[in-house]
Design brief:
CATH class of the largest domain: Mainly Beta
Number of strands: 33
Number of helices: 3
CATH topology of the largest domain: Beta-galactosidase, Chain A, domain 5
Length: about 500
Amino acid sequence: MDRRSFVSSAVAGFFGAALAAPRGARAQSAPAPAGFSFDAVVARAHDMAQMPYRRPLMKLTEPFADLKYDAFRAIRFREDKRLFNDDRPFQVDLLPPGFTFQDAIEIYAVKDGVPKRIPFSVDFFDFSPDFFPYKDGKAPSDLGKDLSFSGVRIRNPLNRPGVWDEFAVFQGASYFRAVAHNTIYGLSARGLAIGAGGPDPEEFPVFTAFWLEEPQPGDRALHMSALLDSDSVAGAFDFSLAPGVETVIQVRAVLFPRRDIATVGVAPLTSMYFFGPDRRGNVDDFRNAVHDSDGLRIVNGKGERLWRPLRNPAKVETSAFADENPQSFGLIQRARSFDDFEDGEAHYELRPSAWVEPGSGWGRGSVMLIELPSADEYADNIVTFWRPEAPLLQGSRNEFAYRITWGLDEVEELPLARIVSTRSGLSILDARERVFVVDFDLGMVEFPGVVARLQASAGEIRSVNVTRLPEGNQARVAFHFVAGDAPSAEFRLWLDSENTRASEIWLYRWSA
C-alpha cells in the first residue's frame, strides 16, 4: 500500500460545499455570486462556520465500491480529458473516488472570472481490464452518476519539454504534496492540523471544493482556491503553485472557528522517519537508512539556526520550540547520496525537503514536532507545524500567509557550519556510556580554532573532542554520555570560532 494512502485511510471528509448552490444541510444558504474571486470563497467559508458541520460521505457504487489498492491505482484519468490541455503551461487531472477516498469533492474551472462546475462522470477514466470487466477500458456511462471527484493532480513540463510530469497532488482530507525538478514524492503538507500532539483525538479538516483558474500562455504559476471544513473550523485557502528547480507554493488561509481551538496547527508538514545511523537497534535491514526527512530545521525569530535530528521513538514524543515571529521551519532531507540509503527502488536521496516561510509576523507561539513510533516505512510518523500561543476563538477571523518551498537544497546559504549527520552507539569500553558523533560541514569556517560548546539537561558529559575528517572541510564532534538514573536528556551543541558562533545549533533528545 502506498504510504500516503495508508495514512489517509484514517482521515475523514465532508461533502463538497462550493459557490454553486449547496445541497443538504446548506440548501438554505445564500445563492452563488455570478463571478468568482477569493473573497467569494472567504464569504462562503464565513457562512459555513455559522452552521453545524455535517459529514455526509459518498456511498460508493460500481465501479468504485470495495476497491483494493491495486484496483484503485488501475483507474487512469484520460489524457484527452485533462483541464487546460490546449497549449497551456499547466494541465490538471481529476481524481476518482474509491479505496480510502470517499469524500465528495467539487471541482470548478474558472474562465474569465466565471466558475463552471465539472460534473462527475466515469467517461473521464480508463479502467484497466486486469481489474475491471469493461470492453476497451470504458465503463458504462450510467455508472457513478451520484459520485464526485476525490482531488486534483497538477502537471507541467517540469523535467523535460513536452512531457507532462505531475508536480502537485491534492487528495485526502487537506493533504497535498509536491515535487521539484528531479525529485520524487516524499513528505506531505496539509491545509490545517487540529488536535495533533494534544490530549484529544486529532481532527482532519477536509478540502471540499477546488476552483482552478485557467492559466494563460507564459504563466509561471497556477492559481487555485479551496474550501476547507471540519467540526471545528471552516476556511478558505488561496494557492499559487510555481514548479521548477524549487517548487514554490504560496498560501493564504482565512479561518473561521466554530469553537475555540487551542491545539491548531498552521502550515503542517508530515513525513516519515523509520531509521538512520543515529540509532538503529533492532532494525534488521540491508539499507543504511530509511526516511523521507532526517531533520527539523528552524530559523527562529532571533535568527538562530536550529537543527533537530528526527527520531523513531519508542513512544509518542512531542517537542515545542517556543518562538516569536519565526523566520522559517521545515522538514529537511540532507542525506543526498545513494550510499546514504542503498535503496534502488525508493531512492530516498531524491525525496524533496520542504520549508515554510511566514509572509508576515505570526507573533508568539511554538514550532511543534511530534514523533510517533513506527515499525516500518509505510506510516508517516513525523509531524511539524506552528501553534499560535493564543487560541483561535469561536466566531473570529484568522489569517495566515506563508510560502512552502520544495526542493533538493535548502534556501539559505550562510557562512555557518552545517550539521550533516548524527550517529550514536554504546561505548565499547563502558556499557554505561553512550557515544555520540555529530559531523559538521564547515563550509567557509576554518578548522583551526574551532571549539565545541555542549550542554545537557541531565546525566554527565565526558570526553568531548573535535577532529577534522579526511574528506572535505568537515569536522566531527564526539562525546560520551552517562545517563545515570535520568530517563531522558536534551542536548544543545554548536561550534565557536574566535569566540563567535560558527555553526547551526544541534538539538537532540535522548530517551532511555
